Amino acid sequence: MFGKRGLDFHDKIHARAETSVEENHETKSVGEQDSFEQETGNSQCLVGWLNALCQDVMHRVAAEGSTHLRRVALTVRFADCETHSRGHTQPSPA
Fold it and tell me: Is residue 67 within 8 Å of 92, Cβ to Cβ?
């Protein structure tokens, strides 16, 4: 269920791990997602939608005061569940 981390989680839950579960931690990722009611091939519509999602994420990042984010990733899933992902990591925080 939890993949490679499952055994680690199990040990921590049962106090058998050398490290403890952290209640407070630095945010490592911020994301946003949305769905269209119908598929669209209108690139202007898609760019506008993507820009709005990016603005939402940037406002959340700014509100948290985060200055260490370096990676941007985009995942697109089509109606037939075909999924494509692309990402880019900056060498240092922007």
Answer: no
Per-block average pLDDT, block size 10, for the chain (94 residues)? 78 76 70 80 88 88 80 83 87 76
Q: Identify the three-state secondary structure at position 43.
A: helix
- Helix, strand or coil for residue 86? strand
CA gap 21, 58 in Å, rounded: 28
Nearest-angstrom CA–CA distance, 22 and 4: 19
54 touches 69 (CB < 8 A): no
Residues facing 72 on adjacent strands: 88
Instruction: Report the predicted TM-score, pTM, of the whole model to 2 decimal places.
Output: 0.57
**Rounded CA gap, 29 and 23, in Å?**
16
The tokens of 77 are what?
A: 């899933």
Lookup result for tokens 């760019």 = 47
